[in-house]
Design goal:
The complex is a heterodimer of chains A (333) and B (502).
Chain A lengths: L4 H37 L5 E2 L1 E7 L5 H17 L1 E5 H4 L6 H10 L4 E5 L4 H12 L4 E5 L9 E5 L1 H15 L5 E7 L4 H14 L5 E7 L7 H11 L7 E4 L2 H13 L7 E4 L4 H8 L5 E4 L2 H14 L8 E5 L2 E4 L3 H8 L1
Parallel strand pairs in A: 2-3, 2-4, 4-5, 5-6, 6-12, 7-8, 7-9, 9-10, 10-11
Antiparallel strand pairs in A: 11-13
Helix pairs in contact in A: 2-11, 4-5, 6-7, 8-9
Chain B lengths: L1 H7 L3 H35 L3 H26 L2 H18 L6 E2 L2 H29 L2 H88 L15 H54 L3 H17 L3 H20 L3 E3 H18 L4 E7 L7 E3 L3 H13 L6 E10 L2 E8 L6 H8 L17 H12 L5 E5 L6 E8 L3 H8 L1
Parallel strand pairs in B: 3-5
Antiparallel strand pairs in B: 2-4, 5-6, 6-8, 7-8
Helix pairs in contact in B: 2-6, 3-4, 3-5, 3-6, 4-5, 5-6, 6-7, 7-13, 8-9, 9-10, 10-11
The chains are: A alpha/beta (333), B alpha+beta (502).
Chain lengths: 333, 502
């Protein structure tokens, strides 16, 4: 087939056009790639008016995550950047060290969730003297110059646990083990006290079981020892924190004791909720930590110009069981 | 249309310049463009770890400050104090490079914290130095301790930030390296494609330029080989090739015309030469026949003159007249056989001839003339009229049972002179007339009483003399009703006739 002269010219022009198009396409791709790389070098971020630092004992767990999420969410609305001290600093720093950092860094506000210590109280006062307002979450520093406190209603929490235990009584003697840690004796002791008070039935035997130890893994070991000892196996295990709750339900599963012992947890972590849905855990008490973080940021912001003011608030705990867990899921969604 | 004309008017030089400069510029432009982008990426790679270097410098400077404060507190020497102020100044300047705003970016936020902590630290070290100067030992102890605490925190914060930056910068570096690799690949691909496009472009353009040249060369070769029936295309374009093609076509056409004209001239000349040759040949043939048929005319002429004188001496007047006519007849033959003559002389010859015949045949031939005298000067080949009259006698009236008449008439008809020889003899059939007009010998050459010049000779010489075919007409109304032969002489300028005869 012999091609006509015009056809040859047409095809030649077509090839030429295709080549030019390919060149342009490749150039555009190249430029795009360069721009992408350049964009990587550009430091982006939103500007905020205030800078708050969140200092808390936990890190990486749901509770600490929720506290930060709540604080951050409130801060976004008010033009406040809430910095998680552990996120930006060293994770092995104590809350006191973090507090010193926050003071030296001259932040606009501090949200503190920490165990009580005199040193920390001094640091709160020091921050206050340097016009850095401090909001305390969870454990209050009553004698310090903090501006705001939002905590858990310990009495109500203890009573909730007690009532839940009592509901389990079916006319048969109940052995109840309340898992406690000596290091957190102050807070957990109050809860334990209110649990005991809430249980009026003498046929229910409540006893504290200390699961604290020298290292971070002691709780798990001690819980397993408790469930493994036939003489000490309780009918009900009450957990007063998230780690204890998870350790207890996993040990129950491992020792094939699901249904033989009832676990009342103290967490709303996904793993715990899931165990609740599978009826490995009887129920769990949850505190809306995010709400606490939210309240702390809002109150600090609202009262930033007011001196010598102290506001105390509490958040109510909530019981989650198989009856209302689906509702809770919907709310969470 | 206008665009097309503009395109066609580009010269070859411009086209070639467009090809080479255009492609060179295209490649250069793309190279420059790619080079700029590559250079920009390389520059960015160079700056990836700048932030780490700055943080290292910041950290070093901070260490120096702490050292110098310590030295000063230990020795209260002026040198560490001076160094302290120097490093403090440098450190303060370096701090300006750090972010001071609250921005939701971990790196920038850490920079802000370092900045503020550094301000706190510098304030505390100033207090420490002042307290040392004042000799306030408890205070400088306390502030030094506080400063050291902050120093450790800043140092740790810088270290953390540096680590974070290093991690981030490593990712950036990796990204830039990949980008660079991509760019190199793209550059290579782009250059290859551009090269391919350029080659294609050059091939198309050079082909469009060289193809007409090739065709022109081929056409030139054909012309050199004698083939003039070609037309070179591309004569529509207005570049040098178009001009050359048009000139070439014009040249070929001129050559073609010239050759045709030359050929025509040659043919015409050849034809004339052939006619002339034929005329000469026929004349010579007539002369030869005449000489063969007759004794030497000069001798005969002289003899006849002697006879005439003798007859006169003996008072034989009729004999004398006869012999004189005879002598005149032969004298004409001798004088005019090779030249042209006038119609008058031709008629006189006919008169002599018929007189002789009438003497021979006792006046049997009745001869009548009707002449337009002003036409008698016209020139014509000699020995034309006599053979016709001879034919009229020999084949017309000889042997008829009735009185034979021969009529000679000269008159003008339109642009020609007509010489009519009419007899009332046997006449001719159509076939014989056709044969005579086509130059075929109808009668035997050995007939008695003939001068030997046939009709074919007469007609042929007439045609060649006047260079036309319609010089004679023969008509007969049928057997026994006579024949008329008419010669047509075109009225030309006399000079023209004379020239032709010369």
């Amino acid at each position: 087939m012999k091609l006509h002269k015009r056809e040859i010219a047409f095809y030649a022009m077509l090839i030429f056009a295709a080549l030019v198009t390919a060149v342009l396409a490749l150039t555009v791709i190249g430029l795009k790639r360069v721009n992408q790389a350049q964009m990587m070098t550009e430091v982006k971020g939103k500007n905020y008016k205030y800078h708050y630092m969140l200092i808390q004992t936990g890190f990486g767990d749901e509770r600490s995550g929720n506290l930060y999420t709540g604080a951050k969410k409130a801060g976004e609305k008010l033009g406040i950047l809430v910095e998680d001290a552990r996120e930006s600093g060293s994770q092995d720093e104590t809350t006191e060290e973090m507090m010193k950092t926050a003071i030296a860094a001259k932040v606009d506000g501090i949200i503190l969730e920490s165990e009580y210590s005199m040193k920390m109280q001094e640091l709160i006062d020091q921050a206050s003297e340097q016009n850095i307002p401090v909001a305390v979450v969870g454990r209050d520093f009553i004698d310090s110059k903090r501006k705001y406190f939002v905590g858990i209603d310990v009495k109500q929490t203890g009573e909730m646990f007690g009532h839940r235990v009592q509901e389990m009584y079916e006319g048969k003697h109940l052995n109840v083990a309340v898992l406690t840690e000596n290091a957190k004796a102050a807070s957990q002791g109050s809860v334990y006290y209110h649990i005991e008070r809430a249980i009026s039935n003498s046929d229910i035997d409540v006893r504290p079981v200390d699961v604290s130890g020298e290292n971070a893994f002691s709780a798990d070991e001690k819980i397993r020892a408790l469930l493994h000892n036939p003489n000490e196996v309780p009918d009900v295990v009450v957990c007063l924190n998230e780690v204890e709750t998870i350790c207890a339900y996993k040990a129950a599963v491992d020792y094939n004791m699901v249904g033989k012992i009832k676990i009342i947890g103290y967490s709303a972590q996904e793993e715990v909720i899931s165990a609740l849905e599978k009826e490995i855990i009887d129920s769990t008490i949850m505190i809306d930590v995010a709400e606490m973080g939210e309240k702390a940021v809002c109150k600090l912001y609202d009262n930033r110009d007011k001196k010598n003011i102290i506001i105390r608030e509490t958040v109510e705990p909530r019981v989650l069981d198989k009856e209302n867990i689906s509702q809770y899921r919907k709310e969470k969604r | 249309m206008r665009k097309k004309n503009t395109k066609q008017s580009y010269s070859l030089r411009l086209k070639l310049m467009a090809v080479f400069i255009g492609t060179s510029l295209l490649i250069s432009a793309i190279n420059v463009f790619l080079y700029i982008n590559l250079q920009r990426t390389i520059e960015q790679i160079d700056t990836v770890y700048v932030s780490n270097e700055e943080l290292n410098e910041l950290s070093e400077c901070l260490e120096h400050i702490q050292e110098k404060v310590y030295e000063y507190l230990m020795t209260k020497d002026s040198r560490p104090l001076e160094d302290y102020y120097r490093y403090e100044q440098a450190y303060s300047e370096m701090l300006h490079n750090l972010n001071r705003d609250t921005i939701s970016n971990t790196v920038l936020l850490q920079e802000k914290n370092i900045y503020n902590m550094s301000l706190s630290y510098l304030q505390v070290t100033d207090d420490t130095v002042s307290a040392k100067r004042a000799g306030n030992i408890p205070k400088y102890n306390q502030t030094y301790e506080k400063g050291t605490e902050i120093y450790v925190k800043i140092h740790r914060a810088i270290w953390n930030l540096n680590n974070r930056q290093l991690q981030s910068n490593s990712e950036k570096y990796k990204e830039f390296r990949e980008t660079l690799n991509h760019l190199v690949l793209i550059c290579a691909s782009v250059l290859s494609l551009v090269l391919a496009a350029n080659v294609l472009f050059i091939v198309i353009m050079t082909r469009s330029i060289t193809k007409p040249i090739g065709e022109l060369a081929e056409a030139a070769n054909k012309v050199a080989g004698g083939d003039f029936d070609i037309i070179v295309p591309y004569s529509e374009t207005k570049d040098e090739l178009g001009v050359t093609a048009r000139a070439f076509n014009k040249m070929v056409e001129s050559i073609r015309n010239y050759i045709a004209q030359t050929k025509e001239n040659y043919e015409r000349e050849s034809r004339l030469r052939e006619n002339e040759m034929k005329m000469k040949s026929e004349l010579q043939d007539a002369q030869l026949k005449y000489l063969q048929a007759q004794i030497n005319p000069h001798f005969l002429f002289n003899t006849l003159n002697a006879g005439a004188q003798l007859a006169m001496m003996e008072d034989a007047e009729k004999t004398c007249l006869f012999v004189e006519n005879m002598a005149e007849f032969f004298r004409y033959n001798v004088q005019k056989i090779s030249t042209d003559t006038t119609l008058r002389e031709e008629i006189e010859l006919v008169d002599n001839y018929l007189y002789i015949l009438n003497v021979r045949f006792s006046g049997e031939i009745h001869y009548e003339k009707q002449l337009d005298k002003k036409l008698l000067s016209v020139r014509l080949p000699s020995m034309i009229l006599q053979p016709i009259v001879e034919n009229a006698v020999n084949h017309g009236i000889r042997g008829v049972e009735w009185e034979g008449h021969i009529q000679l008439a000269v008159y003008q008809e339109y642009d020609r002179i007509c010489i009519s020889v009419r007899d009332n003899g046997h006449g001719m059939d159509r076939q014989t007339i056709e044969k005579i007009l086509h130059g075929e010998q109808v009668h035997s050459e050995e007939e008695k009483d003939s001068t030997g010049i046939g009709m074919d000779n007469v007609i042929s010489r007439m045609r060649r003399f006047f260079d036309r075919e319609d010089v004679i007409a023969i008509s007969s109304e049928g057997t026994g009703r006579g024949t008329e032969v008419i010669l047509y002489i075109p009225i030309l300028e006399e000079t023209g006739v004379q020239e032709r005869n010369v």
